[in-house]
Design brief:
The protein is an alpha/beta fold. 27% of the residues lie in helices and 19% in strands. The longest helix is centred in the last third of the chain and has 12 residues. The protein is globular.
């Protein structure tokens, strides 16, 4: 089954790597159900938007390579 990962805008290399590994990648503001989310940890509230709440693993990609983030995602998604 294909896993869906919500990825913060601007993480292009991570998005590309996830797609190469067979994940479906969507934006954070999706209405689709997701299996995990990746954020940068930045506190940008330019549109006065309330915090997004996910009941799935959330990985902080700040200061990490795409392969490090994917490895953490894969370890958290093993059931």
């Amino acid at each position: 089954m294909e896993r869906t990962i919500a990825v913060e805008e601007g993480l292009t290399s991570l998005k590309n790597l996830l797609e190469e590994k067979g994940f479906q990648v969507v934006g954070l503001k999706t209405s689709l159900p997701v299996d995990a989310a990746v954020v940068t940890g930045m506190d940008n509230n330019l549109m006065n938007q309330q915090n997004l709440v996910y009941e799935v693993p959330v990985v902080n990609a700040s200061g990490r390579s795409a392969s490090e983030v994917v490895a953490e995602l894969e370890s958290k998604l093993v059931h």
